[in-house]
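User: Second chain of the day. Same drill as before.
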Amino acid sequence: MKNLLLLVIKLYWAIVPKNKRRRCIFKISCSQYVYHKTKNEGLIKGIAAIRYRFNNCRSGFHIYEDPIDKCKTMILPNLQMIKENEISERFLNG
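Assistant: Same format as last time:
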């Protein structure tokens, strides 16, 4: 099953052109994150990664800039906070 999930992700990369894929809010794209998680930690962790990214890589996030140190933090729909180094560049520059 692990190999099947990895194959599906590879097929997605081969079939869907980069410019047609949904743009991720995270610095590491959702498909890359799930691929590496599955390959390195197994199918269960890969499925958990899919669920996490699907639930949090959607609208409903907020970006907060700390007025003191000017660092940006993204608050996800599940109220988890991610630091600037994990946020996609297009959100930091916009």
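Residues 2-92 form one domain.

User: Great, on to the next one.
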